[in-house]
TrEMBL record:
PANTHER family: SPERMINE SYNTHASE. Residues 125-364 form the PABS domain. Keywords: Polyamine biosynthesis, Transferase. It comes from the Eukaryota. GO terms for molecular function: spermine synthase activity. One of its GO terms (biological process) is spermine biosynthetic process. InterPro entries: PABS, SAM-dependent_MTases_sf, Spermidine_synt_N, Spermidine_synt_N_sf, Spermine_synthase_animal. It comes from Acanthaster planci. This is Spermine synthase-like. Pfam families: Spermine_synt_N, Spermine_synth. The active site is at D279. Belongs to the spermidine/spermine synthase family.
Amino acid sequence: MASTTLFNFSVSSQVFLNPVDWKTVQQGMRDIFLDSGFDGCPHTVSFGANNGSLILYSGPDGRSAVVQSYAEGLITVNMQEPSKQEHLLMAEQLCTLEKRLATLLGCEKSKRFPRIQRSISPCDPYIPTVDNRLVEYDFDRIVFEEDSKYQNIKIQHSPQYGNMLILDNDPNLAESDIAYTKAITGNGRQDYRGKEILVLGGGDGGILHVLRQEDPAMIVMIEIDEVVINAATKHLRGICFDSMDELEGSNYKVIVEDCVPVLKQYATEGKQFDYVINDLTAIPITTEPQGDQWDFLRLILDLSMKVLKPTGRYFTQGNGANMRDALAMYEQQLGKLSFKVEFSKETVCVPSYMEMWVFYEVWKQQGQNGS
C-alpha cells in the first residue's frame, strides 16, 4: 500500500539555462529532500538541454520522490510513501517541503495536490465522474458485496452519504440521494392518486417507497436482479425503508424478471399505464448513437411508449450535465420514435454523484393512441 503526493512548480525557464545555477538548485533540492527522510544520493537522468531532466530520490523506509523538469518552465514532484502512519509526512511537513522548494526555485506558482491512497483494499474510495474527473469518497467500510448473475453489487458506507449502492463500479444511489428519486418521479408536479404506474428497474426501492406514499391505484415494478432487491432491503433502509419487505401488497407488485418480455406482453395485451418510470440505466456515453446500449435504450423507449396512455408521462434519468453530446444524441432519438413525443428536462444536484444530473419527462403529442 502506498500514498502519492503530487507537487507542481511553475518556474522561469532561465533556471535550466545556466548549468552552474541548475547544479546549485539540484544541490539545494538534495538538502531539502535529505531533511524530509530521503537519502542524499539521488539518481539523475538528463534528457538533453531542450527536454529537461529527472531526479530520483529514495529513502530507507521505501519512500521515493521523482523530480522532473521541463524546459517550458515546469517542475513536477511525484512523491511515494508507504501508507503506514508512522512513515507518512504530516501535512505541516508537506507544506514546509513545498515552501522550501518554491523558495529555492524562485517559483512563480506552486500547487500541492491532496494525497492519493493506493492499495489493493476492496474498499476503493476513488470513483470517477461520468466525464472522468477523479472523486475521492469517504468510504470507511464495505457493507455488502456479491456477484449476481448480472453484475457486481457492492454497498459501501460513507459517513456523509450513508450506504451507497454501486453496480459494476458505477455509483447508483446513496441514502442521501432523495433528490434523485424526487426528480425521476416528477419533483412534485404529478398527482399519482388513483393512477397506474410502471417502474422499470429501481431495485434499490427508492422509487417504490416514494410512490407508495402517493396513494396510487397500482404500482408494477420490474427488476431483473433479485440480489439487488435483497441487498437493498437489508442494507439500504434509508432508501427503500420497508417498501420491499413484501414483494406484493394491495396496490403494488414487484416482478423479478427481465422487463423486455413483460413490456412486450403488456403491449400485445393492450395494457397501458398512466406513468412509466425508467430507472434501468443512464444514457450511453459514445461518439455515435450506435451499439448494444443504444439499441437497448431505443427498444425500451419504443415499448414504453406502447404501454403509455395517450395522456401519460414517461420519466427517466439522462446523464451528467457535462455530457452534452450524449444528451443531445438522446434527444435526437426521441424524435425518431414510432410515436411523436415532446419532452422537458431538468438538472438536479444529486449529493453523492458530486455532479449535476439531468432528468427527462416525455409525453406523447395529442391525438396518438398507444397501440
